[in-house]
Batch of 2 targets.
Target 1
Amino acid sequence: MIEAIAAIDINAFLSSSLGENAWIPGAVLFATWETIYMVFISTTVSYIVGLPLAIILVTTEEGHVLENQRVNEVLGAIVNAFRSIPFIILLILLIPFTRLIVGTSIGTVASIVPLSIAAIPFVARLVETSIKEIDWGLIEAALSMGANAWQIIRKVLIPEAVPSIVLGVAITAINLVGYSAMAGILGGGGLGTLAYYHGYMRYQTGVMWITVIVLLILVQLIQMLGTRWSNQVVSKRR
Amino acid sequence: MIQINNLSKIYSGGEQEVMALKDVNLTVNQGEIFGIIGLSGAGKSTLIRCINMLEEPTTGNILINGQDVTLMNNQELRQLRQKIGMIFQHFNLLSSRTVFDNVIFPLEIAGIPEKKARQKVVELLELVGLSDKARVYPEQLSGGQKQRVGIARALANEPFLLLSDEATSALDPQTTRSILKLLKDINRQLGLTILLITHDMNVIKDACDRVAVIDNSRIVEVGDVLSIFSNPGTPTSRSFINTIINKEIPEEILHRSVADNGSTASRLIRVSFIGTSAGEPLMSTMLQKYNVKANILYGNIDRVKDTPFGNLTLELIGTLDLINEAMDFLRESGLEIEVLEND
């Protein structure tokens, strides 16, 4: 599927579908799909990498089950460094890297690289906070039963943090919707590209407003799903 | 079974050092319920955590069944911890697991085959009276039920020792009694040694065989619960005992002393008696034998573990000589006498 979408030349598509006689609803639908696709994949990737990082950040802290000050400090510094780079700059900085991996720096697949890299440190800190909310008593209880670090991570830290982690997924996805629009301005595809090239450059104000409304609905929808998912997990436990 | 030698614990957080335990020496015998009582901050929590090495002592050693736990490596320590159950003030149950899955948790950790583990959990839930709650999540349970789950969980790996960290402190008095009864039953049925810490003298009175009083990081008194109740050796012990017996004497009574003038004097005394002597009519014998009057201000009979323990606060009125003779008589009869006011 990734190849199929990458194969579509975004500019060719836009000029053909959004020319003088462009069929606007079709273009909006397609751009929406692209945004959802980018956000979904980069959220997934950022959790695949960010979740383990969060666990390392928490457990290597002083007094925790894998205490290791050096690892904790180095990892913390790297995470902070990435978080301190504004996304729009990261996007440009990562162009050569993206080309290396994807072969191009424009289009939705290419956008997934900077989106994921920007989200990973964010997710690491977000999940770190979720895990730190767990009462130390639970970890102490597991330790008192003779649990090792891996058992504590797998059987205590992750399951106990799930309701909070799930809410974090919604926050991350919503952030990525915003970031994907920025990537869109640099030819990343999705609603950002649509709004910039047509709403702004071609003065198609209508397109601009439609994009805004679609984004609004998208964000509402993601938050609603996230809250519902989290509540579902929590209410099962009540 | 547990022998603690010269144990000290110093927390060196930042600039200043905090002494949490100083030179603790303690022996806990096989099969007993041993209580450690102290105010918050006295060091009892640190002490109980040193026993399973959740806290690492600064100096000293702890022998459990002859093995020094302070010298164990991580692997040995995990093996040991599987055989030492622990229950907590705030229960520390996993909210992500049902009651059944909470109790099976330590068995998973120990790598017990699932079939055997499930069977064990069924037995344990039966033991603590929660068989009908197996599929329920902890959130739906009352405090007492949560602690029963905690106890079942602590017993899962058939421990030889149970550590109880303020296990009843978050519970109401009635629930506390039922949990203590469960602990006593387990102690009796399984021969399980129990070490508990508490700040509540009722817990010591109801459940313990022996007690250590900890104050300001040191053990100030160790002994049989009955003897500490009848004859507390330190002000700390006395103040703990006063929390549950003979509430403060009202000021008016303390100061309403009859003027000493050779012919009449008054003394406020507290008489305590244990076990068998509680049955003898010593008071009326004393009143008949010596020409003193007694004004009974307060009295109660309680049980310390399973022995009756009574105490009586009296104002004795008569001549000073007679009062002293009467008090000597009571002492000779084996009662503990304490003069509360002596001006």
Note: Chain B has a mean pLDDT of 89.
Target 2
Amino acid sequence: MAMTKKTVGQVTPEERAEIQTLFERRNGLNELAKILTADNAELYEKLVKDMGETGRKFQNWWDRMAEKYKWESAEGGNWEINFDTCEILLVLA
Amino acid sequence: MTWEIAKQAIDYVLNNEQEFREESVTWDFIGGEPFLEIDLIDKICDYIKTEMYRRNHHWFNSYRFSFSTNGINYHTEKVQNFIKKNQEHLSIGITIDGTKKKHDLNRIYKGKDGKGSYDDVVKNIPLYLKQFKNAGTKVTISSPDIPYIIESVLHLYKLGIKDIHINCVFEDVWKDGDDILFEEQLLSLADVIICKGYYKNHNCSFFLETIGKPLNPKTQNTTWCGAGQMLAIDATGNFYPCMRFAGYSLRSKKPIIIGNIYDGIDKNKLRPFLTLDRITQSPKECIDCEVASGCAWCQGENYDAAETNTIYQRATAICKMHKARVRANNYYWNKLYRKLELEGEREEFEKNKCEVKPEIC
Amino acid sequence: MLQYLIILLDKESVSFCSTPPKGERGGGLMPLETLRQGIRFGMMENLMIQYVYPDKELSKEYAEVIESIDHSKIKSLPQSLLKEGRMDADVWVTESIKDIKAEVPVVWRTDKQNLFNSEADIVCALENVPRLNVVLTDVETFTDEDFEKYKQLLSALAKHIEKLYVEGKAPQLNLLTDRMMLQKMNNCGAGDTTITLAPNGKFYVCPAFFYEDESDSIGDLENGLDIKNKQLYKLEYAPICRHCDAYQCKRCIWLNRKTTLEVNTPSHEQCVLAHLERNASRELLNNIRKHGTFLPEQEDIKEIDYLDPFDKRDTWQ
């Protein structure tokens, strides 16, 4: 079955900027994790901690926004944000 | 470039965070062919990532690695491993000039009896498009390329490349009649794009609604080119406002070196670049031009072609080509909108149309 | 519009502005015929001629030709004449102002170190010369620390000048009193209002362009002037300067090109020095006015929050 996307809401540019920074940071940490090893103890420890913290902030943003805007949801679906338009999309597999 | 030079260049840029306050950064690797040095580039990118993170540099939250490649080594294990490792931060442009005939006219292997590279590049396109779904390509048109414009653009569409950034070179290469030939090619291309419906989901940057209008001398006075707002570093560690100011890019002028990795940037040499505006560098014919918008320039070519050693004299070799483009562009939009109106689809089109930004050097 | 023609009578003519010192230029008197043709050019173009002299004595023949047109003479001031104050010149150029006395304006070429140590000599000179033009020969080397010293020196000199004004005198020091009198830019003018004729019969933007590279000419007596990109010497084509009100700034075209590679763009150091002068002039003007009416037709000099207009480029329209 083809994936469908439906616009279910919009966030403010400030809210978009917050999640975009977290998104970029999470991607950066994930790619850094591919090259950092435990040999570099100091940085590795910082990275592990940071990944956990960024992940929490990321989830916290979605929880806060979902609570604030009460977007439509569906079983098996997930929300996505369009960084260009600030739109929230409901994605159904 | 040696690893030592590369490392020192990175250290200079990251050590001087207060001088580079932009929110985001693109680390751009340009030619020769960057993927011939994939081991070095991989090491450089790893160092950049690690150092940005170790220093808590603000760019760690917003960076890209960008490559302009001929695409021949795209499929190799080393390049593919590099792509997987940095997938979320990559911007890769593969250069294909168009059809095999056109591409192989200019892109020939050294010492292979004149064999062109088209076949080796094009086999990598499906993989490239799979990995970078919205990938586009950049095509540059010089005088001998004019007769191949239509077939080249349509060929690239056929390969699955939907976004084509195409522009005429800024150098004074144009012969008498080139503008008429160019206009004819663009008119025919406009017909095909409209008749075959490519306008719905393909882009060709020749056709932009914003070009061909007069510009207000006060409110529309910004310069076109980004020279001076970037930092270009050569293999020996010299800094330039753009690589077009390096010795090997210039025909008749001395390079403009604005510093090096050892002594840093000479900010006085950046001042002319950062205070340039359109009016100060343009001749009267450009200031008064009724189709000025979208007429581009390259600061390096301006410098190279200027009568004195200045970046403040705009080269106008491209003028007749821009005017031909404007005429064809007007035709394109008039024809397209009439068709859409007759079919009752204009409103829908305007709502959904893809935005193409003008190509900025 | 061209107004002035500087004629360098010799390759070793005195340096009277930021031009590098004579050093190893080697001698070379302008041929008499070239001088005649130069004067003829000046007459035909309606230009005011300024002769720049070498240290050596010129022959009677030269003197006769020189006197064939109205002109000014720029000469170096021999040490032996420092205290006498009499000599056949309209502008004196000197490397030392200690105990100086003169009846004509004096140009003092100095480096920053010497300047910082010369407060007392400057104060003394201001009472003994009608005008003192300080020309810094190492502008491009100024550091933040030097800027601070310069600011302090200007402030101290302004107090002396204020006192002299109160006493009814009217000393002229380019660094401080010019800005009080000006209502628009009054700068170097090389390539715009002023050109230079060198002993080789060729025209140059200014003497420094000739001394730096003789091939960098802008025409010759035989074929006339040929100033490429002439507009770039004009204020309207100088993006930083056209937004600036440090009207007394030297805006040295040669230093511009040396430091930024563009004749229309000043260096950071040039801009900061000019603004320190501007701000000290503002203070001086305000303080003199506390003693009574002074230059009533002249507008106040505004308070500003920058020393380099380049830093304000985002606010330009």
Note: Strands of chain A lie at 4-10, 78-82, 87-92.
